[in-house]
Amino acid sequence: MGEHDLIDLRSDTVTRPTPAMRRAMAEAEVGDDVYGEDPAIRALEERVADLFGHEAALFVPSGTMGNQIGMRLVCEPGQEVLCDADAHVVTYEMGAAAAVFGISTRTVVSDGGLLDAGALIEQVRPRGDWHLTATAAVAVENTHNRGGGRVQPLGELERLFAWSREAGVAVHLDGARIWNASVASGVDLATYGRLADTASVCLSKGLGAPVGSVLVASAERIAVGRLWRKRLGGGMRQAGVLAAAGLHALDAHLSRLAEDHEHARLLAKRLGVDPSTVETNMVVVDDVAAPVVAEAAKARGVLVSQVSPRRIRLVTHLDVDRAAVDRAGDVLADLLDR
Ligand code: TLP
C-alpha cells in the first residue's frame, strides 16, 4: 500500500491542495509582501479582516505564529495571559509565550475545554498591584482541539467579552477552526470576530490550504504585528501563491465543512462514541491502548493520532471521502471490538 492509499485521520492539517487550488496558486499575481506589494496577500488580508469585522489582518505562516503575535499585541512581557489548561497556546506551542515574548501564562482547568466565563473571570488579577502578575488578556479556543472539536457557547463568549470591556482585559481568540464552529453553530464569523480583540484563524486546517493563517485586529495592532512577524522571520516575499490557496479555500471549501462534520458523526456512531459529543470534525475515543491501536490501525492503512496513552483522536477533512470514512470505520471498529 502506497503512502497515498493511507486514510489519514491524524489531523485536518494533512490535506493536500486540490488541482483547482493548485491552479489558483499557479495563476496568482504576486509581489514582494515585505514591501507590502503582493496583491494576493493584500486581497486575502482584506477579505479575512472583513469576514471577521476587524479593521486589518496579517498573513502569517502558521497558527502558532498567529496566536503568539496575537497574544503579544495584547500582553506585555511580565504580564499574563489566562486560558484553560488544555488550550493549544499552552499545550502545543512549545512554551512560545514565555520563550519568545516573556509572557506568563496561567491556566484554569475546564470541563473538556468548554468556556466558563465566570470561572476565568474569577481568576483574573488586576493591574497596579505591587505583588500580583497582572492579567492583560484571556485566550479562548474555538473550536477546542483537546476538547474534541467542541464549539464554545455563544452566551459564554458574549459574557466574557462584555466583562472584558469593563475590566480592561483583552480577549484573544485562537480560531484555528473557527470556520468549523461557524458552520456547526450557524453563528457567523463576524459575530465571533467582534467578541475578540485579536483572533488567529487558520487556512491550513479544514479549509485545506497548504500553509498559512491570518491574524485579525485593529489597524493599529496589526501594524505592530507586522513588525513582530518580521522580527520572527515570518516576513515572506512572493507569498501570494499561498494567499491564492487561501482565497480559493474560502470560496470552495468553507461550506463543505458540514460534510466533514457529518463524516465525524458517522465514524462516532460506528465506534460506539456518543455522536452528540461530536460537534465538528473530531472524534475522540477514550479508554483504549492508544499506542497499540495506532500501530495496528496503521498496519491496516488508517492513521490516527494519540492524544494521550488512553485516548486517540480521529479528524475528518477534505481528503477523506465517505468511502474512506466507511473503510476507516470498519478497520477501527474491528480493532476496538465495537
Ligand atoms: N493543531 C495541530 C497540532 O498542533 C495539535 C492539530 O493537528 O490539531 N490552534 C489550534 C486550536 C490548533 O489545533 C493548531 C494546530 C494551532 C493553533 C497551530 O497551528 P499551526 O500548526 O499552523 O501552527
TrEMBL record:
Domain Aromatic amino acid beta-eliminating lyase/threonine aldolase, residue spans: 8-285
A biological process term (GO) from this entry: L-threonine catabolic process
Leader sequence segment: none
GO CC annotation: cytosol
GO molecular function ontology, one term from the record: L-allo-threonine aldolase activity
Gene3D superfamilies, sorted: Aspartate Aminotransferase, domain 1, Type I PLP-dependent aspartate aminotransferase-like (Major domain)
Modified positions (N6-(pyridoxal phosphate)lysine) in chain numbering: K205
Keywords (A to Z) from UniProt: Lyase, Pyridoxal phosphate
Cofactor: pyridoxal 5'-phosphate
Pfam short name (any one): Beta_elim_lyase
Similarity field: Belongs to the threonine aldolase family.
Name the record gives this protein: L-threonine aldolase
